[in-house]
Design a protein that fits this description.
The chain contains 1 helix and 12 strands, in the order αββββββββββββ. The chain is mainly beta. The protein has a single domain, classed as Beta Barrel (Porin). It is globular. It starts with a helix and ends with a strand.
Length: 252
């Protein structure tokens, strides 16, 4: 599947599901567009230096949103990369579901499909990839200057299928734990640990740690800066050596 066909399929699903409308905070601001520049050192096949566009639409009913990620990895895959020589990457489409309560705790969930659209194929996984995950978040109480602290835990499973039989398979269990501080003005800071288990490598584990801060420039614009690095397990799926990321998102 080409990136164009994946984008067309995403727009069809978003249009069919319908907008969130009045369910969206602040009215009908159902769309989000995000531009990200991500420099990554010693990443796996789908974790290299890139520019990425994310398009997200809030949905009605049982669905929270639909998301399309259009990555453009640099032909030069080292940390510095070359932003002026982007190539098509593996397109990802995600459908997220509204929270459900289990045992008195709210859980959100999603399903995601990645398409082997990278050109050249070496800049992607070379296979289709199915992923599903669930997250729960809980409050930790008030912080300084009117902030609110919270923590969340996410678990997901990614499995590859089809595509290039000569490329490595993916069978990866991933966890994500964060501690987050939210300011009343919309700013936030969080620390994240992302351990994973690579079953293709016989259950080898790896993890990265990240620090992220977001600044709400206005009601619609947010700027985000992230830095991350390897904690252990070089070469395990989803890990990288070091990362510096800046992104801007606009909601309308």
């Amino acid at each position: 599947m080409t990136a164009r066909r994946a984008a067309a399929a995403f727009l069809a699903v978003a249009a069919h599901a319908g907008p969130a409308g009045a369910q969206s905070p602040g009215g009908a601001r159902d769309w989000l567009v995000e531009l990200k520049r991500q420099n990554t050192g010693r990443g796996t096949a789908d974790e290299s230096t890139r520019t990425q566009v994310k398009i997200e639409r809030a949905l009605a009913g049982p669905f929270a949103f639909a998301r399309l990620e259009l990555p453009f990895p640099d032909a030069d895959t080292d940390f510095e990369g070359d932003a002026f020589d982007p190539r098509p990457g593996d397109v990802k489409a995600r459908l997220a579901f509204r929270a459900v309560t289990v045992g008195g705790r709210a859980f959100t969930s999603y399903v995601e499909l990645a398409f082997p659209t990278a050109d050249p194929e070496s800049l992607g996984t070379g296979k289709f990839q199915w992923q599903a995950g669930a997250r729960t978040r809980g409050p930790l109480g008030a912080g300084p200057a009117g902030t609110q602290a919270s923590t969340s835990l996410q678990a997901s499973q990614a499995v590859s299928f089809g595509g290039d039989a000569a490329r490595n398979d993916t069978n990866l269990t991933k966890f994500e734990w964060d501690w987050r501080l939210d300011h009343p003005a919309g700013h936030y800071a969080k620390a994240v640990a992302k351990p994973s288990i690579d079953w293709v490598q016989g259950g080898k584990t790896g993890a990265v740690g990240e620090i992220e801060g977001g600044w709400a420039v206005s009601r619609d614009w947010t700027l985000i800066l992230l830095g991350g690095g390897l904690l252990w397990g070089e070469g395990v799926g989803g890990t990288y050596g070091r990362r510096l990321e800046i992104k801007a998102s606009f909601r309308f």
